[in-house]
Amino acid sequence: MRANYKMQRLVVDGTLAAGGTCETTPDQFNYLANVLRLAEGSEILVFNGRDGEWRARLTFPTRKRILLELVEQVRPQPEPLDFHFLFAPLKVGRLDYLVQKAVEMGAGILQPVMTQHVQGKITSPERLQANAVEAAEQCGILAIPQVRPTARLRDVLEIWPAERRLIFCDEDSSTQNPIPALSAIKERRLAVLVGPEGGFSEEERLLLRGLPFVTPIPLGPHILRADTAAVAAMAVIQATVGDWT
After folding, report:
1. What's the rounded Cα separation, in Å, for the pair 201 and 43?
2. Domains of the chain (ranges plus CATH)?
């Protein structure tokens, strides 16, 4: 069932069930009451990442509180998103964009990794998580994407599960077409790794290319910024071997 993009969507805490209620946070109250100016009796869609999507009716028990009365479930909870996105941190504004687009493209796990040529840093994991949640609200996703703590690339690779195929964007690939390499992938559990603005070091490229669970792919003949490369990579992966197929 497709998402209803005409109604406001909101992530809430607590269990969602027929006849139940949940209360908004102060920030959500301000957004619904003062920004959107929704009146009592207005309806929105709510989800918590576990119980599907519900139509909820606003009630105002006091001037500073909103209770959401759950009316009916409109979409059941799907399977969790199993596409992992690994990325080197960028500068703040572009990092926000990167996280939002990764969620829109179906990433359920977002893993910041520190590489040798990294130019940015994660100053606020909470901000990244909030951006991920906001993207899920806006694009109809029912899962709650998770931002993992920043880790060194080598440390992540040392404990990588062999059954998950890691696709990394290799700017020094000898070819320009990613389709042949992607078409050869048989695993259904996938992850993509996008490097920093300065690219991967030769040491990192050799490390990645030497691992049996890694598939390097090119992204065409053009030089792409890291955030553009991330969107391009996720699109071609999803269309070739991901959940678009």
Report:
1. 52
2. 9-75 (2.40.240.20), 83-240 (3.40.1280.10)
